[in-house]
Amino acid sequence: MSDLQLVNDRLNALINNLSAPARKEMARTIAKKLRASQQQNIKRQQASDGTPFKPRKAQPIRSKKGRVKREMFAKLRTVKYMKVQATSDEAVVEFTGRVQRMVRVHHYGLRDRPSRNRSEIQYEPRPLMGINQSNLNLIGDIVIDSLSS
């Protein structure tokens, strides 16, 4: 057995020694911190690995002149659409309701119709959610703080 597996088993044993409400509170804290991290990534218009989102496509010639003044996904990063769920076994950050479909299209770069009367458009992949090394370090810190208290 590798050393990493041994550490993982001992850490799981320590976490399982916590009471169910304590584990749930730890999971809720982790989910809230991850949501804040994802909201910041969306605000900065970048994926979790730091690469910037692909810019919007240029509008057709006949459309209005001027630049688009609002940023992409401004409403999606609000608490109304990014919900946190926590149980004693898991922490979940997810998009809710009707926006899940739109998020899936943009996250994976799928084809979709922007409105009923328009033709399908191939969207650029813009990963809205993801885990990076700083998130993993944050989760580790929260787990250590929960175990030490």
From TrEMBL:
InterPro entries tied to this protein: Phage_virion_morphogenesis
Polar residues: compositionally biased ranges: 36-49
Biased composition (Basic residues): 54-67
Pfam family, one: Phage_tail_S
Region (Disordered): 35-67
Top-level division of the source organism's lineage: Bacteria
Annotated protein name in UniProt: Phage virion morphogenesis (Putative tail completion) protein
